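Components:
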Amino acid sequence: MRIDGWTLLLQAINFLVLAWLLRHFLYRPVLAVIAERQATTERARVEADAARADAGRLRQGLEGERAGLSEERDRLLADARRQADAERAALLDRARAEAARLLAEAAATLDDERRQAVSGQREAAAELALAVAARLLGAADSAASLTQRFLIEACQSVAGLAEADRRALVEDGASPPDPLPLRLLSAAPLGEGALTDARTRLETALGRPVALDAGADPDLIAGVELHFPHSVLRHSWKQALAEAMEELTRDDRTQNDAHKQNDAGKTAAA
Amino acid sequence: MIESPLSAPIVFALGPVTITLPVLTTWGLMAVLTLGSALATRRLRVVEPGRVQTALELVVQTLNRQIGETMQADPAPFLPLLGTLFLYLATANLTGLVPGLKSPTAFLETAGALALVVLLATQALGVRARGLWGYLKGFAQPTPLLLPLNILAELTRAFSLSVRLFGNVMSGEFVIGIVLSLAGLFVPVPLMALELLLGLVQAYIFTILAAVFIGGAVGSIERG
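Structure:
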């Protein structure tokens, strides 16, 4: 066995050449593409990390905004609730005031109507009472005697007047005619004696002669009316019942007027 | 006189230079490896690599990782030398399984040449990494008395490297040849399968030992 020096040398050279060739055609390009892929992967990883960090920051920001929105929503809800409560309270107050006003108006209306009804009933009752009294008194047989007595009382009333009042009955700045004309209306026709007695009494009371003009007026029921030149002296049941009627209805009218004035004042205030 | 089967047969001669069979086979392997690499790396893609590219990347990355783990250093400067050593040895050892071809590593010249390259590369890289004086001082460690023994060990390591490779590949081919001549056509198939495994194991052993020697020389690992 022998060692071939040329083969040894050539094989060593061959190996070195092969190493150079593979370095150029195999290792370098393959390592380059591996490095490039690793760089790409690293870039992608870095970008993914950056994207994840951005997403984290974005998420934190959104969570902050969401918390802010929640607080804002709570605040707005609280404000809205407060406003709603205030408006509801105002509405309730207005409704209560309106209800109170309506109740007051209704009560006033009812009171007014009740008063009007009572007044009307009272007037009707008074008229009925007067009609009953007039019929009863008119139908009485004593109307003539009552009339005569009323005549005497009328003459006594004239006599009982003060001097100035008596003068005012017959004078009006000028001197009255002589004899003094007097119109005497009676509920029932008077007899001559009653008329003479009446003339005498009146001349005595007035201090001058009197010319009586007698007449009858059944509406007087009972009693007389003395018509002086400038005034009338009424002394009859008709007058008495009229005064009674006036007296009965005076209170109702007064109260109605007062209530109307109060209602007008309340309406003006509202 | 009968030619020794261990001698490299001369194919032709260029003047005084004799071109033997292992040299010719090595040229063929070089052409195959280089052209194959050039074609395979012609269209490399970063995204969605093809099967060939994936296989190439797997081989290169595996070599890179093995060298790095063995030398405990950046494998990039040593990949062309050690990676080519493994690829050449693997292909050369398996060439013997192809009918009509003979493995170049079955000749002592090829194994010796590779061992010589490793020896010289070890010295060159050691000097470059540690400086001439620093590298030479390493032979006198731990005591100058061991200087002759360390130098002898450096030479014998390379010698054993070449003889191990040559002996294993040559013996495997011899056994297959003898069994084939004695038994018949298909009997040596299990032995060929074994030779396949043996060839890869020898390539791996040779490359790893070279990495250990170089790593010891450059100081990245404890000197063996």
